[in-house]
Amino acid sequence: MAERIGIVGTFLSAGVVQGWAAMIMGILSGSIPWYTMMVLHKRSKILQRVDDTLGVFHTHAVAGSLGGICTGLFAQRDLANYFVARSNEQGAFYGGHSGGRQLGKQLCGALFIIGWNLVVTTIILNVIRLIVPLRMPEELLLIGDDAVHGEEAYALWGDGEKYDITKHGNSEYDDTQHGLGNNNLNVRPTPPTVEL
């Protein structure tokens, strides 16, 4: 997971930072979002109220913001001149007036994107809420959302699909406990031997 989060953090600056800076950014982007997800998330009452089972906030918001801030710190003037319309921009790490300006631009850009996402996502979710509920009732969540939709995680019969007798046929060796095949849970039939 950390390598994918590291890509999120370094992707923004792929052409404007040197290799050593990209490695530092990758290490920071792989470790800081992990820390916020595994440690801070469990300690923060606000983050615990957010239903984010996939850690999208940490892998995208934290890592993406960190990548933008690191770009404002590590952007090198010669590389930035290839991509940035305004020449002689550089990161704050290299000093000078333009270094602080680039960091400020990155911070303003991150705040704008965060605000934009909050507004647009809220509008989209409120429109969807008019059509269908956004969250399953608690009694269905206890069953599990994959089971409610007729799917099974890590199923051996197919790509997450529930065992279907019309597709897969009847088998006395069905040990998935779907109510088909052998009903005795303690005794497993011996598969037939094949002689070569």
The tally of strands reads 0
Number of domains: 2
Which structural class is indicated by helix and strand composition?
mainly alpha
> Would you identify the regions where 5 or more consecutive residues have pLDDT less than 50?
179-187
The major beta sheet can be summarized as:
none
What is the radius of gyration computed over CA atoms, rounded to a whole number of angstroms?
A: 25 Å
How much helix is in the residues?
A: 55-70%
Question: Could you describe the 3D structure shown?
Answer:
The radius of gyration is 25 Å and the shape is elongated. 58% of the residues lie in helices and 0% in strands. Helix 4 packs antiparallel against helix 6 (97-131). It is mostly helical. It is built from 9 helices and no strands. It has 2 domains: 2-135, no CATH class; 137-196, no CATH class.
Layout of secondary structure:
Layout: H1 2-11, H2 19-43, H3 45-48, H4 56-74, H5 77-83, H6 97-131, H7 138-143, H8 145-148, H9 165-168
Name the descriptors.
mainly alpha, 2 domains, 9 helices, elongated
Summarize the structure.
The protein has 196 residues and is mostly helical. Helix content is 58%, strand content 0%.
